[in-house]
Amino acid sequence: SPEENLHDEL
Amino acid sequence: MNIFRFAGDMTHLISILVLLLKIYATKSCSGISLKTQELYALVFLTRYLDLFTDFISVYNTIMKLVFIASSLAVVCCMRMHRVVRRSYDKDLDTFRHYFLILASFVLALLVNEKFTFQEIFWAFSIYLEALAILPQLVLLQRSGNVDNLTGQYVFFLGAYRAFYILNWIYRYFTEQHFSRWIACVSGLVQTVLYADFFYYYFISWKNNAKMQLPA
């Protein structure tokens, strides 16, 4: 889903 | 979250703990590049701008706080602590790291996910992290011998991004529309920069000898 947070990594 | 990313984060945390141990236990920062530490503090401050706006998980928030706090603590300690700062190799740590900051920022303006304040600073932090180790590697090259804790610090710092590459491969094959090519390409460059350090680290480990970098 496009609005998923692109930066879920550290 | 997958095992590769968790292993990467734990390896990164270990590298920070080893660095803190080295400075605290030996009350010395010889062999440590203050410039690399400053670059890493900048990396975390610009990457985690969303710390209070985007909540991902408790783990994510805690790790971000640990990374920001530890990198700032090391920089302050190396600059202010009256005993530690005396052991700083000021005349060896002469890499022009401002160029790394400028180059990363210009590249972030040109290549980013979206031309917004947060995304430009995120891309900047990704590019800067790939280059941040350069002053440290140059300092080790100049000082020749590498003490154990410093060697382990750099080793774990390099290894963590290698785990992230496995994480990105894993996510590519298990998630639709997974594309983190900015982080992937930058992470690859970052890991490659450690290649010769890893080689000499492995040699010293195999020969059970002190790590020597060719002058």
TrEMBL record, chain B:
Listed GO biological process terms: protein retention in ER lumen; protein transport; vesicle-mediated transport
Alphabetized GO MF terms: ER retention sequence binding
InterPro entries: ER_ret_rcpt
Membrane topology reported for the UniProt record: Multi-pass membrane protein
Keyword terms, alphabetized: Endoplasmic reticulum, ER-Golgi transport, Membrane, Protein transport, Receptor, Transmembrane, Transmembrane helix, Transport
Positions of transmembrane segments: 55-77, 98-115, 121-141, 153-173, 179-202
Subcellular location(s) of the protein: Endoplasmic reticulum membrane
Coiled coil (UniProt feature): none
Keyword RNA-binding: no
Family to which this protein belongs: Belongs to the ERD2 family.
Protein name (Swiss-Prot/TrEMBL): ER lumen protein-retaining receptor A-like
Lineage: Eukaryota, Viridiplantae, Streptophyta, Embryophyta, Tracheophyta
